[in-house]
């Protein structure tokens, strides 16, 4: 049962037809009345609740391709239209579909799982329930932060009649449910699962998600709607406490370079957080997937028995991310050369002979970088712009600085593309696990909560942030400011699909000085582009009861 997220179990509920002669038994599907008769049924159902995370609309492709395109530092191969210009049509419809697939599965199982409650211990039953609520909390979180006021339901009122029109939920419904679900999960999940259950969410994962959700709520709810300051302060205090529980657990740590004076060791320590193979440096090896820095990650594999490698999380155990962004794939994404400038900004020195922040070299391929350390892969060769990238930025005259000051014609996407995947169904169905939250994110979110509560009066937030810098031997900072928080997250999580979400939430806080129109070269429309459009097909099928987001 290793890599549990990709167990493709499905539970189909069928209604009987009133005409007997049309009532044909389908030997391939289970009737709802025949399911939930054993603990194994519940296990299979819970496994099925994980799979939407791995599907096309979420971590199987869209987050790493489409949401990364919304990062101002990343360009799609055709930068003159589409998401780079905030022109969103149907690109994110699959994301909506997969989020509601996850919401329905979790809610439906929660509504029916009491049928097998007497067949197991109370603790085990609570762990199944906690997994479902953690997953649902995550689906709710993406729904409310991406779609503003989408359809809301839970196990008490899940849709059952296709003729009944559904309407928009409220932000209050989503945020209350997120906190309740993730709090329950954090209180009932184990610190760790047996190795045979790798991929299931843990107590640390639930607390990290809870802290993240409450931190985002500060911006998307309390600041956006000008809610009570005392309630906002209490919410931030809960966010900080949840993140501190992860830090105090002792279960997680940053992957540290064995030698901070060595580029090879620093590079390997950083890249282990997006590699699918452990990275050797001499006789030492940096563990990659499910390492100490990984608080929770979506599990993928390179099973070449997939019936369709283009259907991740469904008919394939791998993702489609490598196919679209790697030097061996379509090379659809490329960093803007301004990212080089951002990584240098405000820095006085760099360690180990680097010409820039070491995290730049973990995020980007530069000309001359080795594509793979393994001679047997056939890609133990240097990265070459125009061959392993499309030179998107220079071909489209997108960079306004001096290219001569940057030692590479292009900056290719390195995270989740190193080393190269060359076996089996390559470049499709790639095995790189996607890290949903890693410990560096916990530390930086904790620092941000400390700043927002009392301007980090006790200095603990700065200590947490400096841990992230010290891991790569960057000079420690002496003050926690919005500019510092923005810079550290931009550099640390480049290419991980977080930048757009960060910019949007910070835009609700004047202290951060976010000018989204400037960031998106005039394409971002305030009051519209903070949230994605609800798919038009959903509005049509609900005959106007479901309203579109403002501006769309």
Would you give an account of this structure?
By secondary structure, this protein is mostly helical. The chain has three domains: 4-72 and 89-224 and 532-541, Serine Threonine Protein Phosphatase 5, Tetratricopeptide repeat, CATH 1.25.40; 255-291 and 300-432, no CATH class; 437-519, no CATH class. The chain is built from 18 helices and eight strands. It has helices spanning 39-50, 62-69, 93-112, 122-147, 171-188, 203-223, 229-248, 263-271, 321-325, 338-344, 358-363, 392-395, 439-454, 460-471, 482-492, 499-506, 516-519, 536-541, and strands at residues 74-76, 279-281, 284-286, 294-298, 333-335, 364-365, 412-413, 434-438. The strands form four sheets. It has a two-stranded antiparallel sheet. It is globular and about 65 Å long. The chain starts with 38 loop residues before the first helix and ends in an 11-residue tail after the last helix. Mean pLDDT is 93; it is low at 1-25.
Task: List its salient traits.
single chain; 552 residues; mainly alpha; Serine Threonine Protein Phosphatase 5, Tetratricopeptide repeat; 3 domains; two-stranded antiparallel ribbon; 18 helices; disordered N terminus
Summary, kept brief:
It contains 18 helices and 8 strands. It has 552 residues and is mainly alpha-helical. The strands form 4 sheets. Strands 1-5 form a two-stranded antiparallel sheet.
């Amino acid at each position: 049962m290793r890599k549990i997220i990709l167990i493709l179990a499905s539970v189909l509920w069928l209604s009987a037809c009133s005409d007997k002669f049309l009532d044909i038994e389908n030997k391939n599907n289970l009737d709802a009345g025949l399911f939930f008769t054993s603990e194994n049924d519940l296990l299979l159902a819970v496994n099925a609740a994980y799979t939407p995370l791995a599907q096309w609309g979420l971590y199987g492709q869209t987050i790493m391709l489409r949401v990364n395109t919304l990062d101002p530092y990343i360009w799609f191969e055709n930068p003159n239209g589409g998401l780079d210009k905030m022109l969103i049509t149907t690109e994110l419809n699959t994301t909506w579909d997969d989020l509601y697939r996850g919401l329905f599965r979790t809610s439906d199982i929660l509504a029916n799982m009491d049928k097998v409650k007497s067949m197991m211990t109370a603790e085990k039953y609570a762990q199944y329930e906690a997994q479902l609520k953690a997953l649902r909390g995550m689906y709710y979180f993406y729904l409310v932060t991406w779609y503003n006021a989408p359809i809301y339901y839970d196990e008490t009122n899940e849709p059952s009649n296709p003729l009944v029109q559904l309407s928009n939920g409220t932000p209050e419904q989503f945020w209350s449910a997120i906190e309740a679900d993730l709090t329950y999960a954090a209180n009932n999940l184990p610190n760790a699962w047996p190795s045979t259950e790798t991929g299931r969410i843990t107590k640390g994962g639930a607390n990290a998600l809870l802290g993240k959700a409450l931190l985002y709520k500060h911006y998307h709810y309390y600041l956006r709607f000008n809610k009570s300051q005392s309630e906002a302060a209490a919410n931030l205090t809960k966010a900080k406490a949840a993140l501190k529980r992860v830090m105090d657990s002792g279960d997680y740590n940053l992957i540290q370079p064995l030698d901070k004076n060595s580029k090879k060791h620093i590079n390997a320590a950083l890249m282990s957080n997006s590699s699918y193979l452990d990275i050797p440096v001499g006789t030492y090896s940096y563990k990659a997937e499910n390492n100490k820095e990984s608080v929770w990650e979506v599990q993928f594999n390179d099973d070449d028995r997939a019936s369709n490698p283009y259907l991740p999380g469904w008919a394939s155990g791998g993702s489609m991310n490598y196919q679209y962004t790697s030097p061996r794939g379509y090379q659809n994404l490329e960093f803007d050369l301004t990212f080089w400038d951002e990584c240098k900004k405000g820095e006085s020195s760099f360690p180990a002979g680097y010409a820039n922040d070491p995290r730049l070299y973990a995020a980007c391929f530069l000309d001359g970088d080795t594509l793979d350390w393994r001679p047997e892969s056939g890609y133990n060769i240097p990265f070459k712009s125009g061959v392993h990238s499309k030179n998107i930025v220079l071909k489209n005259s997108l960079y306004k600085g001096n290219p001569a000051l940057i030692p590479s014609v292009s900056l290719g996407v390195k995270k989740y593309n190193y080393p190269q995947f060359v076996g089996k169904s390559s470049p499709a169905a790639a095995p790189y696990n996607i890290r949903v939250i890693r410990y560096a994110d916990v530390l930086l979110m904790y620092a941000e909560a400390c700043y927002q509560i009392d301007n980090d009066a006790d200095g603990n937030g700065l200590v947490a942030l400096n841990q992230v810098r010290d891991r790569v031997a960057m000079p420690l900072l002496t003050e926690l400011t919005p500019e510092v928080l923005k810079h550290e997250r931009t550099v640390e999580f480049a290419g991980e699909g977080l930048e757009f979400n960060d910019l949007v939430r910070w835009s609700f806080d004047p202290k951060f000085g976010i000018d989204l129109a400037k960031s998106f070269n005039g394409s971002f429309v305030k009051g519209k582009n903070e949230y994605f459009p609800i798919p038009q097909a959903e509005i049509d099928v609900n005959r106007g009861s479901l309203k579109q987001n403002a501006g769309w």
